Queue: 4 jobs
Job 1
Amino acid sequence: MKTANPSWVRFRRHLQTEARQDPWAAHTRSCACLRGASGKGRLVVQINVCDITGLVADLRSVKEPVEVEAMEKAVELVEGVFEKMRNLLKPGVSEKKLATAVQRGLADRGSGLIYPGAVASGERTAFPHAQPSDRCVEAGDLVWFDVCTEADSYHSDLTRTFTVGEPVSRLKEIYDVAYEAQKKAREAIGPGMKCSEVDGICRLHIDKAGYGEYFTHRSGHGLGLEIHEPPYMVFESNVVLKPGMTFTVEPGVYLPGEGGVRIEDDVSITEEGCRSLTSFPLTDRLERSRWREATVGIFCFGQG
């Protein structure tokens, strides 16, 4: 038996509660009220339409445990692909070949919906929404993968930045900046915080490091039945985070002509703070120091 969608179950409960408190309001908010009157062989119908887009969005933004579990399954599908990408990365492989491998990896793991894999390498990583090209990976490149999929109709969205060999010092620096910005935000996130504050933590750290103008997108977005849905981590949002809200945290720094870094993880608000749905390991600072010892090796930047 197919179970009811939790978002619509909550919506129905909301209308039932409202009906007990104010029957007329519930009647209006349920989308349409029809009044009919017959006269001279004609039926006259008056329709009052109520826009409940905001109500539905608010209800959908707070996830039930079963919805969060579905998103964790979707995260596991992507993390399995990241592990495969780490083994495939080498000089000479093209971005399109890597993107195809992402799609094949998701299919092999039983993903219900497969999106085109977003892959960029070298100087093209400076484009936050770059699509895969014929460019081939070179030693010293940064390479990022932005991968989405779904499980039981609920989505995950993760980005990891890898390096093939030893990148130049400026690219190491912007990685550290993006990493620290995300770490600070994740440690601070909790119920009662505004979305604008999450964005502010990421943006302030990057700005203080001197790269504020190179952080060109929002700090995160909600996840659920859609890849991008409320709440949005943007400076103008006064939405208050509540337990059950699930969203990405994804600061980035993008230097035109040089390269860019983004770290994107999925988190869920709890009563005490926030819980990461992501487990793919992060290369720690001690391991990153081994760049000096590497010739052409493969390292992973990401959040665990």
Job 2
Amino acid sequence: MPHDIATRIKAQAVLELGTKFLISYFIGSLMGALIVGRLRGGIDIRKLGSGNAGGTNALRTQGLAFAAVVVVIDVGKGIFATAVVPGLDLPLIGTDPQISRVWLTIACAAASVTGHVWPIWHNFRGGKGAATLIGTLLVLAPVIILPVLLIWSWVFVLSGYVGLATLCGAMTAPLYLAVTRLPADQPLFSYCLVMALYLVFSHRSNITRMRAGTEFRNTRLMVFRSRAAAANDDDTER
């Protein structure tokens, strides 16, 4: 009898965790760039620019207004999956007190990022996950956002590379937590470290292009830029 009770409790825990993970994944699979593109006449930005279904490619190929809506959707789904889904009292599933709410929340956050990268609704071809990750961190640890954005901005204005800035910003999160929150906040540190390593993996093509000198570089916003780059910008404006 005790064994049967323990088995039922374990099954309920797996059911809640699995169901909420899938819900978060399905939410993450709602791609902002493709939703807005469909509303704008069937634009698929995966066929344009860098081929990435994210805010940066949306900005380069479709303009600021398009990109802004994309970012709001992508950040918003990370917020919703992290802040709302873990606390849902689902019919026939309920809430299992045996499950750590912290780890459940982190699992839902990770699922939303996974959905953005490999969206079931869009043939598993999505973005790189940075905006959705930011949405999850706004819920999990808002204090991280400021140092992450400061490092992102600093690297971007010095290098002109969005990809490099994103990688450095992502690595800032686990480093910040290692210095300020360990060992007390191990789950959050683990999440940020795994996500940072994932972003390095997802940006491997950007890294290859940067090493080859073919990556898009926004020289207009660089603090220190070469005279050749400045002259090229002036010629473009004319």
Job 3
Amino acid sequence: MVEFSPTLDVEVLKRLCLTGSTMAIETNVVVAKEVSVVFDGKFKALDGVNVSIPRGQVVGFIGPSGAGKTTLIRCIVGRQKLTKGELTVIDLPAGSASLRARLSYMTQENSVYPDLTVRQNLQYFATMFGIKRRDQKAALAQLLDVVDMTPQADQIVSSLSGGQKQRVSLAVALIGKPELMVLDEPTVGLDPVLRDQIWELFRRLADEGTSLIISSHVMDEAERCDSLVLVREGRVLAQGSPKELSQQTNAKSVEQAFLRLVKGQQR
């Protein structure tokens, strides 16, 4: 089992970023105004969503499966067309070509090549990001260590378990560490120890100025976020820090706060 180092060299990870990109100074990295997405002219996957995502924080999209979290994420990264509303990402319209080098996206599905080894996948994506080969070895080795995949580095991806494939996808998302990372349920299939280590990494990245949007239906992960967006049936029930949401609902936990907000909505 990998031992997460509290002195993880984030500067090594930064070598995997595209050079020359300018950090923006907007207060919010994402702003959605009355965003709606309707499928087949009937089903409202999102219904008038208004939300602002602060820069440099770990923001959790929390809600049950089917709540609309993934649809909202796909809108943010430019993979889902809006039916109506406005959505800006790093002060540009969502889906703008210039955003491709400034955000990374980890889907729920495996986004790596099954016929390549873990190392070959990381090398391929590092090259796609313009990273020189002489800079890849140390940084990729550290990424493999961070996601606890060093023993499987030269194993073909198709032979890995589901959780291991998830870790490779997370490593790929870290290669493209830009201003905004959007991670759709990145800890699914991970054991509790590794999940804790990954969340420590998320915290370090945010402390270094990276903005992270992380979707989850696991309420205990919500407590580790700076800010939460509680989603249900395509709508945002509330937004705020775990402490704020608990205080507003007189709840002892985020899960209890969520349930009380749902009951209030049903009245």
Job 4
Amino acid sequence: MRLRAGCGLGSPLLDAPANEPLRRGGPGRRLCHRNRPGRAGANDNGRVDVSEPASISTGIAGRYAQAVFDLAREEGMLPALEADIGALESALADSADLRALISSPIYSRDEQGNAILAIGDRMGLTPVMRNVLGLMAQKRRLFVLPNLLAALRTRLADARGEVAAEVTSAQPLSPEQAQQLADTLSAQAGKAVRLQTRVDPSLIGGLVVRLGSRMIDTSIRAKLGQLQNMMKEVG
């Protein structure tokens, strides 16, 4: 998708200031967002309500992801971009402070921007990823970062002719279990499946698998929830 000079309501793809280039080495193509003074939820200190419906968050993240992916592909930086994604996913999983930074409305634009750029520098992120994080902070869009990372993984998998599957388990999968699951999902999808795994002990047991738009939840937590609902209906 090509970035445009004008976009519809709610789209982040508008002209950015000249000092906010996404492309390395100059202004070039930029991610952007319309300045809408007086927008509901805004106040004088630059703090706004960053909550958005999930569908809106997914749409915003998808447009940013396409722009970032296109730039990284043009510059031959897809492997580096994938490394950025993994590093940010790990940081979000490990740091409650980072999760609060991207989602809490108590931080101003400047506070979010300065913090996320410093984090990007320490992590050694690519210029494309670092710049888009700064721009997202400026436009109060950092809350879609998890959606952005997921959308980028999907695009990377598509470029390789693969399908990305997010797998959450109560305990780490062994290499044999991961391979067996990947083979099973590949047979269902009709193409190679790349697993992205994480551990969530609150599942108690079983798996939660998201493959494209499909979600398969075999966790004990889900089964207990279903049992609890059945008991309420009986009562």
